[in-house]
């Protein structure tokens, strides 16, 4: 059996397919399994032990993309796949699935594209209180694969040894040793509708830094938010006593593999509902997620209940969840209503739980 899996873009969505990858390998132990992903999220599956090959498609906005796609399609045709599964359902992924030539092609019922699949599964447009792992798992139902269980089918991202070594060197260079509990605070978000206010991050970092003199807080961000992370660190330091300021450590940017290694070394991860949160969820490290317009039930870490996963949110808002295109009340109350004091309390509880 030669199987092709397709999931283009985004980091979190690729993370949420990893339980399905494991289940497919369990169902077809002798199959050759190939995964197509775009470069942005390729690190998530590059070392996945259940895959035989990872094909990295060029970015949708890269120069010469059409020529690259036709070369990719010719490669897929040569591979002669028996089964192709499209976890994405977008125009490009459905086209690649169809043109792979696989005689069995499974995808979602999507207007204008369903004909590209031989087997279709429903995908309701309404936002549902249902985890994204479960929603993407729908395309496995025609194969007779049982529903997912987070205890045995958790999300995963294998640690990259080279990235782990690089991170260890950077932490050592910053004076962080085994006696320093590391708290990773990610200040970026997938879009402005998920971005917690900078002032809230400043107050959170101040509270965390002043609580424990051995603690080290590392602020991470996407490349476009590096300046914002530096500003949060600077503003938090001004609120701390001189002997507390070393708790805030700046280590530069981390790529996805390095971020996975950093979180694996940490005592706690705090961040909004974005790709890095889901990478953190692939570890056993306690996670405090900041959920504004999104629901924890749909995107909290999908892993064993033995590991701490806590949600900071404003419950019972009639406008939540939303489509993240327009804030109807106009004040982003789902985010501004999450206080730094409440998040700090959740963080301390999570740290205490890990110690216990």
SSE layout and pairings?
Layout: E1 2-6, H1 11-15, H2 18-27, E2 32-38, H3 42-45, E3 53-57, H4 65-79, E4 83-86, H5 91-99, E5 104-108, E6 119-121, H6 132-137, H7 161-173, E7 182-186, H8 198-211, E8 216-220, H9 226-238, E9 248-249, H10 256-265, E10 268-272, H11 275-280, E11 287-290, H12 296-299, E12 309-312, H13 333-336, H14 340-355
Parallel strand pairs: 1-2, 1-4, 2-3, 4-5, 5-6, 7-8, 7-10, 8-9, 10-11, 11-12
Helix pairs in contact: 7-10, 8-9, 8-14
Helix/strand/pairing category = alpha/beta
Largest sheet: 6 strands, parallel
Cα end-to-end separation? 46 Å
Sequence of secondary-structure elements: EHHEHEHEHEEHHEHEHEHEHEHEHH
Number of strands: 12
- Principal-axes geometry comes out as globular
Please state the CA-atom Rg, rounded to the nearest Å. 21 Å
Total of domains: 2
Q: Mind telling me the CATH class of the largest domain?
A: Alpha Beta
With strands numbered from the N-terminus, the spatial order across the biggest sheet is 3-2-1-4-5-6
The percentage of residues in β strands lies in 15-25%
How many separate helices? 14
CATH fold description of the largest domain: Rossmann fold
CATH architect. name of the largest domain: 3-Layer(aba) Sandwich
Question: What would your notes on this structure say?
Answer:
There is one protein chain. With 356 residues, the protein is α/β, with parallel strands linked by helices. It is 36% helix and 15% strand. It contains 14 helices and 12 strands. It has helices at residues 11-15, 18-27, 42-45, 65-79, 91-99, 132-137, 161-173, 198-211, 226-238, 256-265, 275-280, 296-299, 333-336, 340-355; strands spanning 2-6, 32-38, 53-57, 83-86, 104-108, 119-121, 182-186, 216-220, 248-249, 268-272, 287-290, 309-312. It has a 6-stranded parallel sheet, covered by helices on one side. The model has no long low-confidence stretch (mean pLDDT 94).
